[in-house]
Write the structure tokens for this entry.
Amino acid sequence: MSTGSTVFFREEQRFDQWWLWLLILVPTTMVWYGAIQQLVFGKAFGDNPTSDTGMSIILVLFGVLLPLFMYSLKLITEVRQDGLYVRFYPFHLSFRHYPYESISTYKVREYSPLKEYGGWGIRYGRKGMAYNVSGNLGVQLEFKDGKSLLIGSQKAEELVRYMQVAMRK
């Protein structure tokens, strides 16, 4: 965070869709089951089992690191005195700063993550770039250089209100 920059609004979002966690936890459970069967009980899991070393690597990658990685993903949006700050952790090591002077227009809008941007995350679509983790509401920013950015938000109206407050200060 920049020194002396008051935070007027902060939103932290995570991937909390049940179906996404189902897609992660079903294979994770299968990996754990196979690893326990092979490494603890010495039973082959499937017709063509991997070595114990291979199974240990699979367990670490898909049984531990993948769920931890998914849990660590978060989109943080902050409205500060000098601009809008966005961080998609762990991909962004620091906040991306969008000064108010560079923004020509902004508005709350409904969108289709799949149709317009091909899904969730850090996305590029025909309407520009998007940061989103869930839902279909966001704040559409149009920049003076012609680029656009959609920031998905569960509190889009509040985000815009605080942007207006910060821009007046």
